[in-house]
Write a structure and sequence with these properties.
The chain has about 240 residues and is α/β, with parallel strands linked by helices. The chain has eight helices and seven strands; from the N terminus they run ααβαβαββαβαααββ.
Length: about 240
């Protein structure tokens, strides 16, 4: 069956979404951080801190950060939570090469990065105290499979924290966002990265992605309990937390 965003692909209809997403992020990796902060007006930094704060009480000692990208969320998690082990995984080695350089510069010894397919992780079951995903679940080729894998590798009573971009639902945020995402994001994306299609894919994938109560139901269907969500910054981002 699948979900609408699984059919939104960056470049063409022929190749698998995961293959195209990998190519896309390898292509935009050198410009990703600057673009990310510019397009969100740096609010993404607040969203990351808000998500990580949900884990502080649990004091997780082992954390898996899926779709880790250039490592901003993983590195901030390590700085705040100080786990004994933090592994960031992604399908884009271009993005993770930047993450590795950041971690090396900070001399964070207990962070590692490795290439993984989120729908078929190589880790044993019940390994991690916490699993996180920041702005990555909408890129999953198979959302259900990705969530099932997150559930599998999480320890009993472990916590999953997901933050994802979303469309505001209320006037005037909704109307302003539609103008911003339809015109400004593709223009700035093309200007900085020269990859025009990547920054048309971004707003299209956000629009197609299940939000709020619907996404909470999908997380619950994967086996998670105590699923809660909170819309941030007028609905530009949504935070989901759940336990195994």
């Amino acid at each position: 069956m699948g979900y609408a965003q699984e059919n939104i692909k960056p470049y063409n209809e022929e190749e698998k979404k995961s293959v195209q997403v990998e190519k896309m992020f390898n292509s935009i990796a050198p410009h990703y951080d600057k673009l990310n902060h510019t397009l969100s007006w740096n609010i993404d930094k607040y969203w990351r801190k808000k998500a990580i704060s949900c884990l502080k009480q649990k004091s997780p000692q082992s954390v898996l950060d899926i779709a880790t990208g250039t490592g901003d969320f993983a590195i901030l998690s390590y700085k705040i939570l100080q786990p004994k082990e933090l592994i960031g995984v992604d399908i884009s080695e271009g993005m993770m090469n930047i993450a590795k350089e950041k971690a090396k510069a900070l001399e964070y010894e207990h962070i590692s990065f490795q290439k993984e397919d989120c729908t078929s992780l190589t880790f044993p079951s019940d390994k991690f105290d916490a699993v996180t995903v920041a702005f990555g679940v909408r890129n999953f080729e198979d959302l259900d499979a990705g969530l099932h894998e997150m559930y599998r590798v999480l320890k009993q009573n472990g916590m999953v924290v997901i933050i994802e971009l979303s469309e505001p639902q209320w006037f005037p945020f909704k109307q302003l966002y539609q103008l911003y995402s339809g015109i400004f994001i593709p223009f700035i994306g093309k200007f900085f990265s020269k990859d025009n299609k990547a920054y048309h894919y971004l707003p299209n994938s956000i629009k197609a992605f299940p939000q709020g109560e619907v996404m909470s139901g999908i997380i619950n269907k994967a086996g998670f309990k105590e699923v809660n969500f909170k819309r941030l910054s007028g609905g530009l981002c949504t935070l989901y937390i759940a336990t195994k």
